[in-house]
Amino acid sequence: MQLFTRGCDFHALMSNGGPKINLILEMLKAVIGLSEHTIPALLFASVAKFDPNFDESNFELLEKLKKKFYNMLGSNGILLFPSGRNVAPNLAETYVDGYSFIYTCFFNALGVPVTQCPLGINKDGLPLGVQVVGAPYNDHLTLAVAKELENAFGGWVPPCQIKF
């Protein structure tokens, strides 16, 4: 099921068909790293739950955005997009940085294929990467472009030597 469909209850989706989660309890658990959900997802569910116009207004806006994005990419276009704001953020940073999720959730909401492509490491030894984004049903294209980029830039590099 896509994230945004008319009448979709994001809060209900978070429970995988079980009883709805307690958003306040989950937020407290998330702050100490015990929730199965991210803080941005919980914030999103909270806004969606308490704003009666949230679903309808966002659905219409998203449909317009999808049309523009699909037209921009055409049948064989590719968009290269950063993987995040920072190179390899500390895991704890991703929980408190309210904007880091936008680098991936935007494309999830649009329903387009994205392939994360490793490009090697920077001068500090941290991994570099880029997202390869395509039009709907062009997974084969994002994978092919990612493979070429990975070959050209060095691809995945092990974080350290493993000795047996």
UniProtKB/TrEMBL annotation:
Alphabetical keyword list: Hydrolase
GO CC, alphabetical: endomembrane system
Matches recorded under InterPro entries: Amidase_dom (IPR023631), AS_sf (IPR036928), FAAH2 (IPR052739)
A single MF term (Gene Ontology): hydrolase activity
Amidase domain residues: 59-143
PANTHER family: FATTY-ACID AMIDE HYDROLASE (PTHR43372), FATTY-ACID AMIDE HYDROLASE 2 (PTHR43372:SF4)
Protein name: Fatty-acid amide hydrolase 2-like protein
Organism placement in taxonomy: Eukaryota, Metazoa, Ecdysozoa, Arthropoda, Chelicerata
